[in-house]
Amino acid sequence: MNKKTAAMVLCTVMAAGVLTGCGGAEEKKDGKTTIKYATYSAGPDHLEDLDKMVAEFEKQNPDIKVETEVIGYDDYFTKLQTQASSKTLPDVFEMNYENFNTYAGNGVLLDLTELAEKDEEFSEDMLSGNSYEYFQKDGKLYGLTEKMSDVVMYYNKDLFDEAGLDYPTEDWTWKEELEAAQTLTKEGVYGTYAPVTYNELYKTVVQNGGALFDENGTPTLGSEENIEAFQWMLDKMLEYNVQPTPEQMSGKSPEDMFKNGEVAMIRTGSWMVTTFADTPFEWDIVQEPGNTQKAHHVFADAVVGSAAAKNKEAVWKFIKFMSTDSTAAEIRLDSSWDLPAVNDESVQEKYTSQEKPESREVIFDVMETGIMPPVVDHYSEVQNAINEELNRAIIGEQSGEEALQAAQKKVTDILK
Amino acid sequence: MYKSKKKIIFTFLFPSLLGLVVFKVGAMLYSLYISFTEWNLFGAPEFVGLKNYITIFRDPRFYESLKNTLLFIAGYLPVVLVLSMGIALLLNSKVKRVNIFRGLFFLPVITSWVAVSMIWKGLLNPEFGIINSIIEFFGGTGPAWLQDPAFVLPSVIMVSVWKDVGFLSIIFLGGLQGISSEYYEAAQIDSASKWQQFRKITLPLLSPTTFYALIITIINSFQVFDQIWIMTAGEPTADLVPVMVTEIYKNSFQYQKMGYATALSWILFAIIIGVTIFQNVMQKKWVHYE
């Protein structure tokens, strides 16, 4: 072999090495169908529970194999977006209510309507409440709600006892909360905490009879009720200082501060029940105080399929399993991994009979006054624009009223 | 054999050239096309002509991010160049164990920006951070470094200088060691002072190195991103001090406006190329090649 030929051979081998790196190879092992499932909610506390669910599914469907991929929530939708653009979405993936509209509207989700109708073992009332309707768009079914969660108020009983205060009740309004928080606040302890962000704002304004968007999705940020509600959020921090400012928090998470006994009341997700389980003090949960009316965050997560999925039957089977299977629901309950959406009375009983916290039923009760995030186009851009103005108010660059009016202008521009 | 030399060279270069063309040049040209479209990553890009560029030049946020980027460069560039040249002069001396110091100054360079930013975020913490504790010890009150928008850029400049000074020092050190000692010996015979030696020998002979350092520093600082992104994450200042690359990132991966984001990238590219060409023209006035 002369040098030239050798060079050509070497070169071809090297080029082939470069090229094979980017071509995805199809796999099919021993006649089994493999589907890929991506999730954000399993990490970091529920990895084993996810494995248990998958094992149960594979037992029920021996011809299907599920590969799971757990992605942190912060990167989840960025990753999904890139996968959607390169047409490499996983066959089945988790989707939340906030992002559902964008994905369904862009045609990347599998239309499940027919699969659900054909399936004799499935009926709408297998899902609790109206959760069957959450992930529909234009009369088509794109996903089944698998689980729900909400936000409640946690309080540190020991700190209330020390201050000689009665525990909060569901009749409390902002006024009672503020009075208690003022008594509770002392060296090293802040009375209360609620984030000052877009996500908190859209609920707080409803507690005061306002709304960030009207029924047509037109922004109504600068309304009187909204300004009053936002001012109250700011005042707790800047005027009364019963809530720590970002500077006073110095990088600690509010949940950690609650765990350390540095915050007496905190509005946070029902999923924190697991994280707070091992605190050295007594705590319980209660409905959030409202002003003119009650309102609570409710979050719904669904399992959806990719429009490009090859084996649509297998995709539907897995979606149905995650949403309505009793064993899957049981695994969820045993590990306090949110509320399963399956319509089963024993589920609620089992959930409330668990030990800590005492008033577990609150997590069900708040669903009655639950609101979902507003569905608007350009969701993350709108959210960022509002947060930016809220932040300018937090650091004192502008008043609450100026912030909401500036946000109104920006959001109108974005949606135009 | 010599006739086919070019062929041989090309054959061996082919694999990496292919990679370069497909993954670099190809991607760049594709992004130029994307910058004339509207594309939310779903579906196909829709051609809109110059619309993205027009929107950018009318967007006050673009000018704010450009202003912050230039402010960053104005604060960072002179400090890091002077400091690293000074350190290089010190490291060039024949002190015992000077290698230990060379290693120490280089340590931040090989540390990842994520780790550096996280550690400095702790050091700059207004309540528990060591920096404000030191200021308090001397009777002052430290600012809320990363919570007050006015102090975000100074903090980021400070950390960037700390991290990059080691890299530039090594470059300057290399330049200094390339200067023949004969010049200094001759100057000493003529009884020139240390300062005169520095002004008349070191600076001119170091100027090619300075030119190189200046170019890469400016290119890098136009692309400032990691440190400001990580250090302000979770703080109220997170969106209040935009620089050009944070805007590119947000528009592409958070707002799904790929067309707008790629147009921003091309504007940044044009600025950097423009500045670099300008520097190349200006170098005739001050760079001396032996």
UniProtKB/TrEMBL annotation, chain A:
Q: Specify the protein name.
A: Multiple sugar transport system substrate-binding protein
Indicate whether Transmembrane helix appears among the record's keywords: no
Does the record's keyword annotation contain Cell membrane? yes
Q: Which key words are in the record?
A: Cell membrane, Lipoprotein, Membrane, Palmitate, Signal, Sugar transport, Transport
Automatic annotation (TrEMBL), chain B:
- Record keywords, A-Z: Cell membrane, Membrane, Sugar transport, Transmembrane, Transmembrane helix, Transport
Where in or outside the cell it occurs: the entry states:
Cell membrane
List each copy of the ABC transmembrane type-1 domain by range: 66-279
Where is the major localization of this protein? membrane
Q: What is this entry's stated membrane topology?
A: Multi-pass membrane protein
The signal peptide annotation in the UniProt record is none
Q: What is this protein called?
A: Multiple sugar transport system permease protein
